[in-house]
Design brief:
Elements: E1 4-8, H1 10-17, H2 25-36, H3 38-46, H4 52-64, E2 68-70, E3 81-83, H5 86-111, E4 113-115, H6 117-120, E5 134-138, H7 142-154, E6 158-162, H8 165-175, E7 180-183, E8 186-187, E9 190-191, H9 192-201, E10 210-214, H10 219-228, E11 232-235, H11 240-251
Parallel strand pairs: 5-6, 5-7, 7-10, 10-11
Antiparallel strand pairs: 1-2, 1-3, 4-11, 8-9
Helix pairs in contact: 1-2, 2-3, 4-5, 5-10, 7-11
Length: 259
């Protein structure tokens, strides 16, 4: 039997109770669900909102961090979480990605953008005004960078820019994290998907709002971006109003929906 039984440790309970920012927000939510809801609630809630194959990776990392522990055979409790078998979970996850990719393709055909509603419905509304909200744009093409900077500025937001993964890292280290990351996929020294994946694993910035801004329209790329944790996906070319609408929707800014 390949199923594993997990239980939240004292460290894991302390992490979600104290909202420890060193633990990614998705992990804190999983810990809360494991600790409070037990098996039925967790299966119902988590597997419908997260990519299912990723759940096994997250559980393994949470175990490595000491936030959860495997329960020895014979010591199980009714509230413990039984992780689905890996092979079954992988098949379901692939079906989910195909389904989301198809839906994304339909959405893009109409609007040029896609929102990860499953992620956004758990995010708190943004409290800062646009003029106090900093957006970091990572784009290597000078014309596209200038256009994105102009449109973000016209929408009322503050802007920082970078032209590469190296520039992005320097911006984070020197000036701190932005409020939202607008990220191109094709960069001269790296790949936006890799940046997205690593950001979602970062202990302090795992919950940073991230929107992919790219010329890639293949539904497979869209599904990949969503599965890796993107909050939104915008295809070039795009309009100022579309960009502003997606940013405000990702940040859940009060009063911006009536633009």
């Amino acid at each position: 039997m390949s199923e594993r039984v997990y239980r939240v440790t004292k460290a894991g309970r302390a992490a979600w109770e104290s909202e420890d920012r060193a633990v990614p927000a998705d992990y804190r939510r999983l810990l809360w669900l494991l600790d409070f809801h037990g098996q039925p609630g967790l299966i119902h809630e988590v597997l419908k909102t997260y990519p299912r194959a990723a759940l096994h990776e997250w559980l393994a990392e949470m175990e490595q961090l000491g936030l959860i522990e495997q329960v020895p055979v014979g010591q199980e409790r009714t509230q413990d979480f039984i992780a689905p078998a890996a092979d079954r979970t992988q098949a379901l996850d692939e079906a989910r990605v195909r389904e989301e990719s198809g839906a994304a393709g339909v959405s893009l055909a109409r609007t040029g953008a896609y929102l990860a509603l499953d992620r956004l419905k758990y995010r708190r509304a943004w409290k800062k005004a646009p003029g106090d909200t900093l957006i970091l744009i990572v784009e290597d093409d000078p014309d596209q960078l200038a256009l994105a900077e102009l449109r973000v500025t016209m929408a009322g937001y503050k802007v920082r820019t970078a032209r590469s993964v190296k520039g992005f890292l320097e911006s984070i280290f020197e000036d701190g994290a932005p409020d939202l990351l607008l990220l191109d996929i094709e960069l001269p020294d790296g790949n936006g998907f890799d940046v997205l994946s690593r950001m979602r694993r970062h202990k302090a910035m795992g919950a940073l709002p991230i929107i992919l801004l790219t010329a890639r329209t293949d539904p497979a790329d869209i599904g990949k971006g969503l599965a890796l944790g993107a909050d939104g996906y915008i295809v070039k070319p795009y309009t100022k109003s579309l960009l502003a609408d997606v940013v405000s929707a990702v940040l859940k800014q009060a009063g911006k929906e009536e633009r």
